[in-house]
Inverse folding.
């Protein structure tokens, strides 16, 4: 694959798994209480229609977030609980370069561009479906690209 040799960024690892439900307390009962994964924070955004608990699995640069999400308004979009496995987050070495390059390769992004995510890192989302203008999407999976901080880049880059 010729394009792979010119890729100006590296996918470093899994940053998060986001799970949605109609009631995050039920998610918290399983993930936080029964499985014992500690909560490290919360995030609420009217614009993104999300109220979430952020759990942390592991420590340091190898930690992975488990985001437990419920919609603020169950009738509004986006519906963070549909599908229940809402999205996967991937650490990226250079988010701006990734977005520019992937866009030039026909990847479709969700509206909103690069912005601050719940954990404070710059993020951008690959749309679950391609369209005529940008035919490549996540084939039904929403994918979050997350700018890795320097310590993650140093620990996880090749």
């Amino acid at each position: 694959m010729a394009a792979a040799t010119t890729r100006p960024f590296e996918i470093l690892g899994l940053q998060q798994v986001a799970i949605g439900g109609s009631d995050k307390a039920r998610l918290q009962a399983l993930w936080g209480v029964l499985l014992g994964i500690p909560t490290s924070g919360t995030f609420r955004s009217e614009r993104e229609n999300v109220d979430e608990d952020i759990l942390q699995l592991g420590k340091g640069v190898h930690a992975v977030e488990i985001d437990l999400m419920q919609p603020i308004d169950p009738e509004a979009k986006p519906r963070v609980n549909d599908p229940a496995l809402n999205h996967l987050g991937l650490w990226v070495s250079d988010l701006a370069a990734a977005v520019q390059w992937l866009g030039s390769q026909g990847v479709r992004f969700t509206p909103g561009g690069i912005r601050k995510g719940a954990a404070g890192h710059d993020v951008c989302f690959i749309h679950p479906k391609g369209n005529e203008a940008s035919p490549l999407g996540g084939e039904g999976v929403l994918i979050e690209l997350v700018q890795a901080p320097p310590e993650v880049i140093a620990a996880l880059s090749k």
